Amino acid sequence: MRALECLVTIVEQGSLTKAAAALHVSQPALSHQIAAIERELGTGFAPRWYVPRADADESALTPADGQTFCPYKGLCSYYDVHDARRAVWSYDNAWPEVGRISGLLSFEPDKVVVELDGTRLQLEPGQSVVPHGPDRDLTTEEIAPGKQP
């Protein structure tokens, strides 16, 4: 039950730092709790952090060619960061069910160094990055009718 409370608080507060304060725990303790949940679920996938564009150095982003389609989120656009190809992505018009991520940026922690709230984001032991997650190999033509962004 505590794990579910942690996840809900992170979503409600919008950041790990604010969630940790609301739960009266340290940020590293909260990060370890989330990693424990992932291990328990057997995911082993890297967590995805979505941040407002205002919190990123957009001058370092170069739009990359092509988009992909995620059946859970919608059309995804990618950005290169210097030599790191497709290191950043965004769902500019995410499906309504996940609308809170619309226009936010997310980063591949194995391609670029990212700091969030003063903490370097990195993979936990046992985590790995799967290219493009569930949307790999799906094309923009596979968007469900009536779900055009």
Report on the structure:
This protein is α+β, with helices and mostly antiparallel strands. Helix 1 crosses helix 2 and helix 2 crosses helix 3. The radius of gyration is 16 Å and the shape is globular. The protein starts with a helix and ends in a 28-residue tail after the last strand.
Key descriptive features of the protein:
149 residues, alpha+beta, five-stranded antiparallel beta sheet, two-stranded antiparallel ribbon, 3 helices
Uncertain regions: pLDDT < 50 for 5+ in a row? none
Task: Find the count of extended strands (DSSP E, 2+ residues).
Answer: 7
Q: Distance N terminus to C terminus?
A: 36 Å
Helix count, per DSSP?
Answer: 3
SS-derived structural category: alpha+beta
- What kind of sheet is the major sheet? 5 strands, antiparallel
Give the H and E element order: HHHEEEEEEE
The whole-angstrom Rg is: 16 Å
The side-by-side strand order for the widest beta sheet comes to 1-5-4-3-2
Instruction: Please give the share of residues in helix.
Output: 10-25%
Strand content: 15-25%
Question: Average pLDDT value?
Answer: 76
Task: Give the secondary structure arrangement, pairings included.
Layout lengths: L1 H12 L2 H8 L3 H15 L8 E2 L9 E10 L3 E8 L2 E7 L14 E3 L6 E3 L2 E3 L28
Antiparallel strand pairs: 1-5, 2-3, 3-4, 4-5, 6-7
Helix pairs in contact: 1-2, 2-3
